Amino acid sequence: MAELDIMVCAFNEEENLPRLLKSLQEQTVLPDRFRVVLVDNNSTDDTVAVAQSFKDSLHIDIFTEPRSGKNYACNTGLAQCTTPYIACTDADVKVETDWVEKILAIAEQDRPHAFCGPYRPYHIQEPPEWYRPTYNSKDLGAEPRDLRENEFVSGPNMVWRRDVLEQIDGFRVDVGLVKRGLARGDETNVQVRAQREIPGFVCRWYPELVVYHLTRPETYSLWYWTRRMLAMGYTQHQVNEKRPEDVSSLRAAARALREAARYLYDTTIGTLRRDRDRYPYPQNYYYEHTMKHLWELGGHLAQVTNHAAR
After folding, report:
1. N or C: which end of the chain has fewer CB within 10 A?
2. Whole-Å CA distances, 67 to 61, 88, 89, 90, 174
3. CA–CA separation, 7 and 39 (whole Å)
4. Beta 145-146 vs 203-205: how paired, if at all?
5. Model pLDDT for residues 98-132, shown as the tens digit of each residue
6. Does residue 308 have a pLDDT over 90?
7. What does DSSP say about strands 60-64 and 114-116: parallel, antiparallel, or unpaired?
């Protein structure tokens, strides 16, 4: 019987899924010690056929969730999982060969409610010169430790105790990724609710637990990040389950205009005046500095929209 279920939710991942499954074929533990629970989220390509082609070498069970939305698929997968811990990763990830071995060791020795590790980028296309290796990555340091306030697990590399996910009723289906959309926050919301509802909740960071996450070519575009940061800012109160400040519609609109003005200043004068040693390319300045205004602007626009809907 498998000791670890690995949950993978996939939408149109026929090209990327083989890299993940091949990396799972190469694990240092015997293949009967883990099972892949793959949930196809209404794909229109050959994702399911690709998964089925690995059945001879991996213990893989395939399920279908017709409702679009990653968290619908996560709840379908959760209902099929049976092991005490569930490892969650994405279909466009490659894992280190000792990934499963280390997860099993941590689960046996430390038994945290949840834990996570770094993800690093890999590319299928040469990135532009301005795109730094630290982009599309996560690293919280070289020492194992508890996550601090405002530090969260990440979907490509997180492990949860199954009973924790069941106690908080799984994943909220009204937040997070739908198809290849822009909104995120699936895993953040789970952690927010676990921290609130599970007494003594502990989530830990383990730097030795490494995976590699595909940097999709569309993310080389600043237009992509402009739209994504606005979308994530727009849904931030919903994801974090924090009631936004109760302000009048005029004040919310004024704040949105002020943030928009800051954004415009940063994209023009701020870019020209940037520290060129720190930000050699204008794109670095935009990615690392200017985009924070889009996050704030998205939050203010959500307040304006809420007032208009009343």
Report:
1. C
2. 19, 20, 20, 18, 12
3. 8
4. antiparallel
5. 999 999 999 999 999 999 999 999 999 999 999 99
6. no
7. unpaired
Q: Give the residue carrying structure tokens 């300045």.
A: 285
pLDDT band at 207, cuts 50/70/90? very high
Given pLDDT bands bounded at 50, 70 and 90, which one contains residue 181?
confident
Taking residues 49-65, what's their average pLDDT? 97
SS3 state of residue 179:
coil
Say yes or no to pLDDT of 241 above 80.
no
CATH of the domain at 91: 3.90.550.10
How much is the pLDDT for 250? 86
Domain that holds residue 267: 222-309
Q: Which amino acid is at 210?
A: V
Q: Cβ atoms within 10 A of the Cβ of 132, count?
A: 16
Residue 176: CB partners within 8 Å, gap ≥ 6? 69, 70, 71, 183, 184, 185, 186, 189, 239
Let me know whether 211 and 248 are in one domain: no
Q: Are residues 100 and 154 in the same domain?
A: yes
| Residues 57 and 197 reside in one and the same domain | yes
Could you tell me if residue 179 is left (phi over 0), alpha (psi between -120 and 50 degrees) or otherwise beta? left
For tokens 């994702």, the residue is 47
Q: Give me the phi and psi of 240, to 5 degrees please.
A: -85, 0
Give the phi and the psi of residue 125 in degrees, each rounded to 5. Answer: -145, 145
pLDDT at 261: 97
Between CA 178 and CA 231 the distance in angstroms is: 12
What H or E segment, with its residue span, contains residue 114?
strand 114-116
- Mean per-residue pLDDT over the chain, rounded: 94
Amino acid in the structure at residue 68:
S
Which pTM was predicted? 0.93
Q: Please answer whether residues 302 and 244 qualify as being in contact, where contact means their C-beta atoms are separated by less than 8 angstroms.
A: yes
Residue 244: predicted pLDDT: 65
Residue finishing a domain among 183, 200, 218? 218
Which residue, 122, 121, 123, 125, is CA-closest to 135?
121
